Amino acid sequence: MNLHGTSRIGDNQHLWIGGLDTVELAKKYGTPLYLYDLSLIKNRASGFKKAFEENGVGYQVAYASKAFSSIAMFQIIEQEGLSLDVVSGGELYTALQAGFPPERIHFHGNNKSLAELEFALSAGVGCIVVDNFHEISLLKMMSSKLNKKIDILLRLTPGIEAHTHDYIITGQEDSKFGFDLGNGQGDKALQEVLAFEGFRVLGIHCHIGSQIFETEGFTLAIEKLFGHFKKWEENYSYFPSVVNLGGGFGIQYTSEDTPLSPEQYVSAMIEEVKKQMIHFEGQDLPELWIEPGRSLVGDAGTTIYSIGSQKEIEGVRHYVSIDGGMTDNIRPALYQAKYEAFVANKMNAELTQTVSIAGKCCESGDMLIWDIDLPEVCDHDFLAVSCTGAYGYSMASNYNRIQRPAVVFVENGEEQLVVKRETYEDLIKNDVPLKSNVFV
Ligand SMILES: Cc1ncc(COP(=O)(O)O)c(C=O)c1O
Ligand SMILES: N[C@@H](CCCC[NH3+])C(=O)O
Fold first, then answer.
1. How does this protein assemble (predicted)?
2. Deepest in the core among 56, 86, 240, 423, taking most CB within 10 A?
């Protein structure tokens, strides 16, 4: 049994998180319920920051808010002194509503609309991470119109792709994101942005993948990037003052996963950058930025469900259904993602059966966990699925008109509801009934 952060088994055999009984929280707020262990998030945040500070390197740690965004979440990120990566007008709007300082917001996206770019610039975001030539044209137009210099990073695809445990070095990167270095797009983009006086080209961005357990992919990417910077220095007298190496640091969903600590990932990156800098005499070490999403919130999240119906097919499978599923966690259906789960009110009970956890959607693929050992369960029990904090709530849907769950933050025996459970009224609030005499 892997217990993360402040998760503990209480004297009453219940799962406790943040000093609170998760069974009591489930009864109070209803299920499915997302719980976030704030101390774990804060520990990770300071782990990332510490590694930069101990090495005396200028940095920004930007939370990749796609992992889980809400006003309260952004307030925590602000308090922790992190920056924020947003990829849409909606994420930006939420951040601004949370009072997040716009100058610490980085605006991403492979198809930012004109309206989104206008919104970002009028809000005064720290920088735009430019993804493609279309966006360069839009930004040029806007810089001229507003008579304003725009701070940008160029998103590059270095031709290294991480597949969790191994790295593929691809010739020409087949990706919808960024400017490819291998086929000359990166050089062309740099020339174009340097030639336009309305841009301040702060540096570059690259993101090689997600749920990465080793440092090799990052160091390979750094080696490739800095190899290219040598060409840029010689050909265009340009050297970046910011190198953003993206996110992707892994977490332990199950015992098969073996992530490193924030310090280990960051130290390896810094070491490689310093190694590369010997080729750049007279240049200052660039600021290093990273964008962790999953590793800040993933294992801090636990979803509590109520157990409902069961179906036993002799010699085939025993299904245990819960009151949520793919609508609050699409990852098992989408990526065959694996999770661990416990019966939150029977934490020390003997595991006597192998069951599969089914969601409540009208969809055979709505299975949360295949083949997990559990004690005997009944419809008064609560299932706790751990490590659901990243890309769970943020990818939730209303399929089958199921309401999205509530989210509660816990820490040191205190709790706060930070996202209300949706109501039936919420589900129809954008519906417009037919006018009379139309479509008849
Ligand atoms: C550009 C960018 N930055 C950061 C992240 C965050 O990744 P992760 O949640 O794996 O840390 C992602 C998602 O993969 C991304 O696309
Ligand atoms: N949503 C994905 C990761 C994609 C991250 C964004 N580039 C997941 O749940 O693992």
1. Homodimer.
2. 86
Query: What is the spatial distance between Cα 26 and Cα 382, in angstroms, rounded to a whole number?
Result: 8
362 has catalytic annotation: yes
How big is the CA angle at 246 (ends 241 and 249), to the nearest 5 degrees?
Answer: 135
Q: In terms of residues, how long is the chain? A: 440
Distances 205 to 145, 152, 416 between C-alpha atoms, Å: 26, 10, 36
371 alpha carbon to ligand 1 midpoint, in Å?
Answer: 30
pLDDT at 140: 98
Q: How far does the centroid of ligand 2 lie from the alpha carbon of residue 220, in Å? A: 22
pLDDT at 165: 67
Which ligand neighbours the alpha carbon of 131 most closely?
1
In this prediction, residue 438 carries a pLDDT of 83
* pLDDT tens profile 351-388: 999 999 999 999 999 999 999 999 999 999 999 999 99
The residue contributing the CA closest to ligand 2 atom 8 is 391
Sign, CA torsion 351/353/356/358: negative
Please report which ligand is nearest the Cα atom of 48.
Answer: 1
φ, ψ of residue 372 in degrees (nearest 5): -125, 145
Ligand 1: residues with CB < 6 A are 64, 67, 85, 108, 207, 210, 246-249, 291-295, 390
What does the pLDDT read at residue 273?
98
CA atoms within 13 A on the CB side of 137: 5
Relative to the CA of 294, which ligand 2 atom is closest?
Answer: 10
Q: Which of the residues in the chain have pLDDT under 70?
A: 165, 169-173
User: What phi and psi, each to the nearest 5 degrees, are found at residue 169?
Assistant: -95, 110
Nearest to 69 by CA among 416, 305, 396: 396
Which region holds residue 52: left if phi is over 0, alpha if psi is between -120 and 50, else beta? alpha
Domain architecture of the chain: domains with CATH: 8-30+300-428 (2.40.37.10), 38-296 (3.20.20.10)
> 99: alpha, beta or left, given left = phi > 0 and alpha = psi -120 to 50?
left
207 lines ligand 2 (CB under 6 A): no
Determine the distance separating the centroid of ligand 1 and the alpha carbon of 163, expressed in angstroms: 13
pLDDT for 436 = 87
> What's the CA-to-centroid distance between 85 and ligand 1, angstroms?
9
Tell me the two tokens of residue 313.
């097919």
Report the pLDDT value the prediction gives residue 159, as an integer from 0 to 100: 87
Atom number in ligand 1 closest to CA 210: 10
Q: Which ligand lies nearest the alpha carbon of 86? A: 1
